Fold:
Amino acid sequence: MRNIGLIVGREYRERVYKKSFIITTILMPLLMLLLSAAPTLIMEFVDTDTHRITVVDESGLVAPSLKSDKEVEFVISDKSIADALTATADDESSFGVLHVGKEIVANPNDARLYTTSSSSMMLEENIASQIEKVIESERLKAYNIENLDEILDKVEATVHLTTIDKNEGISSTMASSLVGMLLGFVLYFILAIYGSMVMQSVIEEKNSRILEVMVSTVRPFEMLMGKILGIAAVAATQIVVWGVLLMVFSAVIMPALMPDNIIESVQQVQAGADVAALATQQDVAPEMLTALASILDTGHISMVLVSMLLFTVGGFLLYASLYAAVGASVDQAQDAQQLTMVITMPIIFSFIIMMMVMKDPNSPIVFWCSMIPFSSPIVMMARIPSGVPMWEVATSLLLLYATFVVCVWGAAKIYKVGIFMHGAKPKLRDLWRWLRY
Structure:
């Protein structure tokens, strides 16, 4: 145990004391926040060119109803489509010509946009949605209903559904899904990046013959465990730092930036008040209040962070033992591609299943993948923010750490033989033979 502790300390200090680790650990949360807010900031502060479009409407119905905005400016023309295209061909201020056919109401596809440069999806959706409203309005007029617009305004309704979990209380499906996906992404990258870091470290030490010197005083199993636990401690340190930053953001920064009336409403929601009544009072969507209640609930966040720490450490220990075994069996990282593919496939599969959590976090395939140790770290962490019974979390953790014990036992046998093998590129049947030694 003393030798394992020395190796753990060496692996931990070698990585944590680097400037790159400190910078990455601090900047990563800020970078993720900036990336999530980037689209909104760009749309808000970056000026976009207004597209000037000439409208040739043969039906006479669409053009009067088209509304210009910052993105597009409509100019109605009484010319034919051929003359309009000719007139705008040399006009640098013109983006293109919108041609609406005579039978647009009967044939909604009778509309064409001729552009002088590349168009955008948002611009086309803007124009198409405006034409759709005109077509729908004209079709409704055929029923000869008086005061139709007034009737439609009165009957229009927007439903904001408040979800109340019998075990968890009021919950936000939107916030839970987004947090679950984010945690799944983080675990995916931790398993992939830190796992390959273990393999690369073993390969470098094997090529430098350091392992052959160390094995005279330290057992191979102790070297393997020391390296895995040391790098696992590095990953755990990073998660703890991120957790502290998240708690400060949730408990201090966000409340300071939000209006007092919204904070009071959120606190009342957390206490079990009627979300619908508070949302009407504050003129906000109920889903927004429940999302803020989840984000500002430090107790819930603490539970999620503890779960993430346990699943991250367990998942890393499992995959790191496999990566270390592969690293000990080859001389170059290029030789490990065939073997690492077997390891990375479950991680990629878990990432795919994680996408299904947003659709149904309790579907049979999602449930079983959150129990299978090779996929449970990613899939279970994507499920936990939505509310998972404690017996499922405990069972998943028990299976994960039990599988790690089995895998590290097998990896140690491969490691013990592999560190002395040089030159030959092993195959899967060679690793199986080493397991039986």
Q: What stands out?
A: The chain has a mean pLDDT of 76. The chain has two domains: 2-34+165-435, 51-155. The two ends are 24 Å apart (CA to CA).
